[in-house]
Amino acid sequence: MRIDLHTHSTASDGTDTPAELVRNAAAAGLDVIALTDHDTVGGYAEAIAALPAGLTLVTGAELSCRLDGVSMHMLAYLFDPEESELARERELVRDDRTPRARTMVGKLQALGVDVTWEQVARIAGDGSVGRPHIATALVELGVVPTVSDAFTPDWLADGGRAYAEKHELDPFDAIRLVKAAGGVTVFAHPLAVKRGECVPEAAIAELAAAGLDGIEVDHMDHDTDTRARLRGMAADLGLLTTGSSDYHGSRKTCRLGEYTTDPEIYGEITRRATGAFPVPGAGGRER
C-alpha cells in the first residue's frame, strides 16, 4: 500500500480542488490519501463525492498551533467534524486569517512591494487565505522566484518583516480537543528548521506525555540526519512515525506520494480513531 497522510486542496492553500486532488492521487498510484486542509473540513464532501474506486480517503485537518511563541502545526485525523468545541476553535482560527492576511499585505506595501489585497484574494479564491497565497502573489510580482523563497525573515517567515500573528491553538489544547472528538494527533514536520524556529525537543516529550500520537518524520523539510533523530525520539517516547508529501498542488514542488506512511502505522491510526472512519472510493463522479 502507498499511503500519503498530508495533502491540501483549494479548501485551504492548495491549487487542486478536492475532486482534482483525489483523482490525481489515484493517478499517482496511491492507495490511501489524507485530506488535511488548514483548520477546515470544507473539502470533505467534494473529495468523497469524487473518490475513485481503489482509493481510500482519510479525513483530517492541519491545525494551527503556537507554543511559547513558536508556531507549529498539528495534523488531526479521523475526528468527528461536527464536535462542537473543536469546530468552534477551527472557526476562530479561520476568522482570524483574513484580518491577519490584510495586515501582512499592508506590511509588504510599507516595504515597497506593489501587492494588493485584491490580488491575494483572487489567488485564495474560496480557500482559507494564508501565507502561501501571499507568497504566490510575491512570485507573480517577481519579488521572489518561488513560494518557498517567500518564507524567509526578509518576507513571511515567523518573525519576518511582513509577518503578522493570528489566533492559534495551544497544542496541548489541540490534543485534548482532537481526542475528545475521537481523532488522532500527529505533530507535522516538527524539525523543519528551514521554515523558522522549531519547538524544542523537550516540548515534544511533554506533548507525548499529554497524549500526542505521533510525529511526521519523512517530509521534504527533514534531511536524512533529522529523520534518523526523529525516529530515535519517537522510539524513546512511544510515538508513531508517519511520512507524507505535504502536497499543495503547483504551489510547492513536492509530489503526491513523495513520502509515505508504513501500512502498519496507518492501521494503528485507524484503530485508535473513533470519531470517523476512512472512506473507501466507490468510483466517484466527474466534477
Instruction: Report on the biggest sheet.
Output: 8 strands, mixed
- Global structural class: alpha/beta
Strand content: 15-25%
Q: Helix proportion of residues, in percent?
A: 25-40%
In terms of quaternary structure, the protein is single chain
Count of alpha/pi helices: 9
How far is the first residue's CA from the last residue's CA? 27 Å
Q: What is the alpha-carbon Rg in Å?
A: 18 Å
* Overall average residue pLDDT: 95
* Tertiary shape: globular
Question: How would you sum up this structure in a few lines?
Answer:
The chain is of the alpha/beta class and 287 residues long.
Question: Can you walk through the features of this model?
Answer:
The chain is α/β, with parallel strands linked by helices and 287 residues long. It has nine helices and eight strands. Helix 1 (18-27) links the parallel strand 1 and strand 2 (32-35). Helix 4 packs across helix 5. It is globular and about 50 Å long.
Task: Supply the key terms.
287 residues, alpha/beta, eight-stranded mixed β-sheet, 9 helices
List the helices and strands and how they pair.
Blueprint: E1 3-7, H1 18-27, E2 32-35, H2 44-49, E3 56-67, E4 70-77, H3 84-110, H4 117-124, H5 131-140, H6 171-180, E5 184-187, H7 201-209, E6 214-218, H8 224-237, E7 240-243, H9 263-272, E8 279-280
Parallel strand pairs: 1-2, 2-3, 5-6, 6-7
Antiparallel strand pairs: 3-4, 3-8, 4-5
